[in-house]
Amino acid sequence: xxxxxxxxxxxxxxxxxxxxxxxxxxxxxxxxxxxxxxxxxxxxxxxxxxxxxxxxxxxxxxxxxxxxxxxxxxxxxxxxxxxxxxxxxxxxxxxxxxxxxxxxxxxxxxxxxxxxxxxxxxxxxxxxxxxxxxxxxxxxxxxxxxxxxxxxxxxxxxxxxxxxxxxxxxxxxxxxxxxxxxxxxxxxxxxxxxxxxxxxxxxxxxxxxxxxxxxxxxxxxxxxxxxxxxxxxxxxxxxxxxxxxxxxxxxxxxxxxxxxxxxxxxxxxxxxxxxxxxxxxxxxxxxxxxxxxxxxxxxxxxxxxxxxxxxxxxxxxxxxxxxxxxxxxxxxxxxxxxxxxxxxxxxxxxxxxxxxxxxxxxxxxxxxxxxxxxxxxxxxxxxxxxxxxxxxxxxxxxxxxxxxxxxxxxxxxxxxxxxxxxxxxxxxxxxxxxxxxxxxxxx
Length: 443
Ligand code: HZT
Ligand code: MN
Ligand code: MN
Prior knowledge:
- This protein is α+β, with helices and mostly antiparallel strands.
- Helices cover 27% and strands 21% of the residues.
- The protein has 2 domains: 3-18 and 79-102 and 109-339 and 418-436, Creatine Amidinohydrolase, CATH 3.90.230.10; 346-409, Arc Repressor Mutant, subunit A.
- It has helices at residues 7-11, 84-87, 112-120, 122-145, 152-167, 176-179, 239-255, 262-273, 362-374, 382-387, 394-402; strands at 97-100, 180-190, 193-195, 212-221, 224-233, 277-280, 283-286, 288-289, 294-297, 308-310, 325-333, 340-341, 347-350, 380-381, 406-409, 412-413, 420-429, 433-436.
- Helix 4 packs antiparallel against helix 5 (152-167), helix 7 runs antiparallel to helix 8 and helix 9 (362-374) packs across helix 11 (394-402).
- The longest helix has 24 residues, at 122-145.
- The radius of gyration is 22 Å and the shape is globular.
- One manganese (II) ion binds at residues 227, 296, 327, 329, 424.
- It is an enzyme of class 3 (hydrolase).
- One of its GO terms (molecular function) is initiator methionyl aminopeptidase activity.
- A divalent metal cation 2 binds at residues 227, 296, 329, 424.
């Protein structure tokens, strides 16, 4: 089956995966995926040959200072298994996309006090950039390898084995997953399912040629979670849907900044989203913003903070503030533009405000210890319990949910037969600039 890949999907592959058709190790270098061309200048992807041109009488020979040998010529493998910390030594990870503030906040970029504040927060910036590079490389694997005919289980494992290996979550030491690893279960949500589907054990779902799949990946380092998602489709008929949602998310990112009002950002997102339509099998559908899905703040070890970013116009006057971290995510749909919970649950998380309950079911007590040790308040899924060797935990898990200690996050679906798409980035509202930490050459 010759999968029809939209030209855009082919052209916008992460540069970190360039050359991935070759056997391992790939030719990708440590610096691929770095968007920031004005950072260090010793990180050029390729060394230009300084030898004179063989036939070059007509060509001008570039005069160039002889360059020092590249510090880190380490190549990433395919699948990616080389530590990000090895590819980028001395804790110098690639920056995301830095965007200067405008208007009343334009002064911040050069302001001495703001720059000082920025500098003292560099520790958490390092962790975010580290996690973001792992995210780009793990999703690069997905962009190159996910094809119709693959099972969702193989896709999830391919992504998660990559992400864990890249941040050094070996699974061999206790508390490993709490230092770095998955920030939440990989979402693989297809068609009318918009979010929070991840395969449980025994899942037989295979990706189909005409499917629209949202791939939502969370990677964390020291609890700093990078939450970023994209949508894949193999039939080009969905291109306008994907374009609508990508443009809507970028519009939201552009509106974001210190003192930006959340309800207004929603209005801009909706305006962009709903300027598109998509024709499927001879029927033209308006693209709708899914009005009960939102972006959100992110806190250490906690995937949702207290602020929500609507994707339709609302009168929420809440402002973005310096120091906030936001997941800007938008969802477009050919259906109702409204989701409900439906289907088997895969995603769970211990509640941050979980009080002390005397658990009378021994399996619940035992499972809570496993959760505390391995996930804390980070979301997890049943597969993560399976890989830890846990068995017959469902009764205990359900009792933790019933007792309000663990929250379940069921799949979120629009009406049957509809198609939904998502794009998402994590952005840092730094004192001097906003940084789109998860930005890549791909999206
Ligand atoms: C919950 C559980 C998870 C957060 C958004 C989201 C994936 O819909 C406030 C606004 C992972 C994430 C979340 F396992 N959710 N982003 N990426 N899902 S949410 C939410 O529950 S809470 C949105
Ligand atoms: Mn997400
Ligand atoms: Mn999110």
